[in-house]
Amino acid sequence: MHTCLRIPEMLKAIFAELMPVTESGVQPSFATLYHLALTCRAFRELALDALWAHIQTPDMLVMWLPQDARSQPATFTARGRTIIDISGHSLRLLRPLVDDDWTTFQKYACRVRSLTFEKYDDCKTRKLYDSAALALLGSPASPFSPFPLLRELYWNDQRDVLLPCLQRCISNSLTRLVIHSELWPSAMIDLIAGLGKACPMIKEFRCSMPPASACAMLSDIVTCWDNLEILETGAVNAQALQHLASLKKLRELKMLVPEGHSLQVDPASTFSVKFSLDEFSITAARIELLVAFLAPLKISAKSANLQINTASNAGDLDQLLSSLTEHFQPNV
Questions:
Q1: Distance CA 275, CA 220 (A)
Q2: Distance of alpha carbon 306 from alpha carbon 22, whole angstroms
Q3: Lowest mean pLDDT among 104-108, 283-287, 308-312
Q4: Which has the closest alpha carbon to 219: 260, 273, 166, 255?
Q5: Residue 46 shares a structural domain with residue 145
Q6: Which of 252, 190, 246, 256 is nearest to 220 (CA)?
Q7: In terms of residue numbers, what domain contains 41?
Q8: Poorest-confidence range of 127-131, 137-141, 151-155, 196-200?
Q9: Whole-number Å distance between alpha carbons of 194 and 176
Q10: How many CB atoms lie within 10 A of CB 131?
Q11: What is the band of 2 on the pLDDT scale with cuts at 50, 70, 90?
């Protein structure tokens, strides 16, 4: 057979067309993938892998279970066709899960590469009940992560009750972890404190609005990562800054300097850190905090963004502007 007609190459070409990558990420053709999975054995596994690789809402996890284990969306008939209405359907479990259910769940969970927990909206009609999420992810039915090949985890849920689910999704296969949380309970801080060793392959880490009390912990975990390319986190200490500056692949650095943060560097010392980046950004509660954090930094970057959350007087702004040439190379 001619090499152009080999089945593996043909399948790869087909699925490349069905999984186009755009600026907003991978955009799979779900309907086509579903029907391909039903077509023949050659298509089935590849189609299922592609179909469940990117889970954009956690309610999709329940769909892997048998119909008698989960609530069903409403159906109605229009023009002789049966239509399933999922717009107002909140998913919940109807019975305790048994071994066969877990076996089925794992057959699909092992295909997941990217998982998103969106911000909870009580007004949203379609959502996953807390009890269902905790039953699936919160209780350790097995000692291992339910998603052994998970590469990307986006956690936007603000509910403390679901933190056990976040804990269960953490694994050493993660390369991208994004945590957006307006609240930082002690359970969240304890969980994040273990990420350095739990996720050694991290290339991108983002967390929003950490308090000053969490910055020391964030400094510790950052020093565990040698493959970082993108980092957005609370302001870290001098040791962590030195580690980050040594990373050749680091191209984007965003620091959030909260109220009460101190770099704890002796003003009389000659401590200095040089960065070469594509993007550099600092967001600070006050201009004094921004100036203090910039003090030991020498930055070469394609772009830089300095943001202050409170109004500043003219004198402070003049001090900041006059110091920029000390901290930024002319190419910025």
A1: 19
A2: 29
A3: 308-312
A4: 255
A5: no
A6: 190
A7: 1-51
A8: 137-141
A9: 16
A10: 12
A11: very low
Largest distance between two CA atoms of the chain: 82
Q: Does an H or E element contain 224, and which?
A: none
Give the global pTM. Answer: 0.81
The CA distance from 146 to 65, in Å, is 14
Residue 175 lies in a domain: yes
Query: Cα 269 from chain centroid?
Result: 37
**What tokens does 219 get?**
């400094």
**Within-domain flag for 87:** no
The interaxial angle of helices 314-327 and 287-294, nearest 10 deg, is 20
Q: How far is CA 187 from the centre of its chain?
A: 18
Q: CA 256, CA 207: separation in Å to the nearest integer? A: 9
Looking at the structure of the chain, the number of domains it has is 2
Determine, yes or no, domain membership for 76. Answer: no
- pLDDT on residue 135: 86
Joined together, the tokens standing for residue 90 give 């909140």
Residue type, 138: G
Comparing 148 with 32, the larger pLDDT belongs to 148
Rounded to whole angstroms, what are the CA distances from 308 to 203, 223, 258, 293? 27, 27, 11, 13
Locate 312 and state its tokens.
């500043």
C-alpha 65/C-alpha 90 separation (Å) is 15
Angle at 152 (CA atoms; ends 151, 156), nearest 5 degrees: 155
**Tokens for 77?**
């008939």
For the record, the structure tokens of 136 come out as 């699936």
Q: For residue range 46-82, list pLDDT tens digits in order.
A: 777 877 888 988 888 888 898 898 887 655 465 666 4
Q: Which amino acid is at 93?
A: L
46 and 141 co-located in one domain: no
The pLDDT, as a whole number, for residue 92 is: 82
